[in-house]
# Entry
Amino acid sequence: MLSDKIITWNEAVDPRAGIENARTLFVETFGTEPTGVWSAPGRVNIIGEHVDYNGGPCLPIALPHRAYIAVSMRNDRRIRLVSPQTREQIDELDLDQIGPRGSEYEVTTWAAYLAGVAWAFERAGYGPLQGFDAALWSCVPRGGGLSSSAALECAMAVALDDLGDFGIAGTVQAPHDEGRKILVDLCRRAENEIAGANTGGLDQTASLRCRAGHALALDCRDMSVAHIPFDLASEDLALLVIDTRAAHSLADGQYGQRRADSEEAARILGVNLLVEAEDVEAATRVLSEVGADSQRLVQRTRHVISEIARTRAFIDVLTQGPLEGERLYVAGALMNDSHDSLRDDYEVSCEELDVAVAAARAAGAYGARMTGGGFGGSAIALVRLNEAEKVARTVARAYADRGWESPHFLTAIAGAPAGRDI
Ligand code: ADP
Ligand code: MG
# Structure
């Protein structure tokens, strides 16, 4: 019977186990002990989607799921990398032979996310570096919109910071936020230029600058942050993450088009970024006049302006106190409205996300929405702690009814930032 079918939970491993897994892989692969093990979390955004490049606020938490990397420096400029997913083969590179996409030394494998960070360090004047051996072990689901890529980069960045004695990041317990902003930029350069992925820095900011037990209210105009207490378990709640495992090839091109639409709307409205256009009605009046593109630009702008307002409202609700009573319902409604706006106005959802969200709501979630860029990836649902399993089963059944492969699930609590001793 379907209800008895085992559903897949991708829960995070305990940090001690993560460290041990990376260390063991290092020893088995390279035959010596690593100098140390560093780690960094993936992230999930609670609300504030497709507003980062419009200068708006977003509200990610670091996942308890982390990438662990065991590293030792070498006496030459070689880099040797291993991950359980690429075990048969050690990826070997040379620090002098790493270059941007399309160049002679482009790196087209997963190694780009690690070697790219070393490249960015040297480009920014932190170096020359020595080569290194590294073993990666990660429990951040890959390609699920939960930033497994940023987790790799940020773990590498704090490792290189410590091993090179640069003193940029501070520790998990006493983080140096100004330094971490520098590392965000280096990781982002690695992802944009070496891995060739067009991302905006939100993922790396969450991984490097969050705090355990807190959501990160990030103002994307100036990248300033505030740490908002976010401890759902103590309120008998959970954030259920539904990794649809759907990935639509549209994602890249559509992302670029949404950015272009936003820029176009801002230009017509006479503002630098849509965050400055606060009034939906006034913006709609102006954009309605522009002819063929007007309906589309009205929709895009309506999403951005309303999502910014929803995110601010959500941050207010969290700041007022525990998510209970009225506050819980308001928070859930804001999440629901966010999804509907992304689906109908911004048009970045997909059937798999919509089905997951509808099923979660029907099973009693207070709120549910897609998270991340869209066209696949993950959805989140705010649920009673003891109902997470029931909601997950309902979503799995909705998928089975359509003949789709089951999604994977995890529950997210706000984890610690990148560093060595978690
Ligand atoms: P997301 O960041 O949403 O998980 P991306 O496509 O940005 O998805 O990044 C996924 C890529 O990151 C993978 O294709 C792979 O290159 C790299 N990666 C992530 N985790 C690992 C891992 N454990 N081992 C090797 N490569 C990994
Ligand atoms: Mg990524």
About this structure: The CA atoms of residues 80 and 172 lie 27 Å apart. The radius of gyration is 21 Å.
